[in-house]
Amino acid sequence: MTLTLLLDLDDTLLTSNMDDFIPAYFKLLGKEMAAHVDLRILLNYLMLGSQAMEAADSPAETLEEVFSRNFYPHLGVERDALSPYLDRFYAEVFPTLSYLTKPRPEAVDFVQWAVAQGYRIAIATNPLFPRAAIEHRLRWADLVPEDYPFEIVSSFENFHFSKPNPAYLAEVLGMMGFPDGPVLMVGDDPVRDVQAAEEFGIPMYWIAAADAELPKERKPVAGQGSIGELRAWLEARDEQELVARYQTKTAVVATLKAIPAILSNLLADLPADVWRYRPDPDAWCLNEILAHFRDVEREVNLPRLRAFLAEENPFITADDTDLWVSERGYSEQDGRAALKEFVAARMEMLVILAQLSADDWQRSARHAIFGPITLQEQFAFVAEHDRVHVRQIHALLKKGVINE
Question: What span, in angstroms and rounded, lies between the C-alpha atoms of 160 and 262?
Fold first, then answer.
């Protein structure tokens, strides 16, 4: 199985003190925009928009949409009038901030080695910047994005969650098709990287000195050291040590929360004929997968959730929902409409889950197949069901349904 690497950028692949970088970035942006927006107002709402992105916890909006909603309406200038100047800033002015960073040659060596091993790589940097800014920072790290097969580079245009929300890691892995093999998060921040990885259930290599210690409430990381030591550490590992385990409540909720965002990203702007394409007679097409998602959510998952909460030890039936694909003629249905209906049902579920107490998650039921089961265990199955069908969609796309 192929290892999937989620690589943080700042102070992992690139030396960059964000306590110095962010003020310099804001100051430079303010200077460039001073002729168009009052500087005090600009900086105030730039900070407000950034804070709103960090607090975002819904798959309904991208981080860019969250930022824009909290930024542009307060400036007294139309967004369309400012866009050309912002585009110019990121193309021509932002690169001058490179003096505040320093490449790590050992990080470049590691990435080149990982590519040669055939590992799948995501640049799992906190997606609070536009893609243009993140690509500049990759160049400052001597990792020119055009020269490397990075599957994901997270940015605010297409991500809905940020670190340390574990839903961010779910979104990264979901965009990669929830790889079955070993997974490793590599990063330096005890909260944004280590805590997020622990809460989502993926192994963590902490970029830190050998004598550095995490807070006592954190679980031990899989590995610890410099980026230059990571290759030798990986070569000494059994891949089974790096298998992700998505069974905790935080991992279950993160997956359920991220799925609408993942589906919306993977399926955006597909041609009409793609939705009915199947690579072989036994494969499901996108229309079928999305109709299945919708009906299982509305007719199985939500009723089961309500049963857990309304009854004492309810009986949970085993429904063969795969039969619905042919019985209900899913292939002829509108997959795009089904996606919207699924998202609406999932949002309804997330509202209920957000209100549950720790005791609620341990409420019990009797499952027709699994016997005694808790609500948490039941919804771990729901999250795995979601991951299975995201893998199915990702495999369809990789077979050439989309001309990337």
Answer: 9
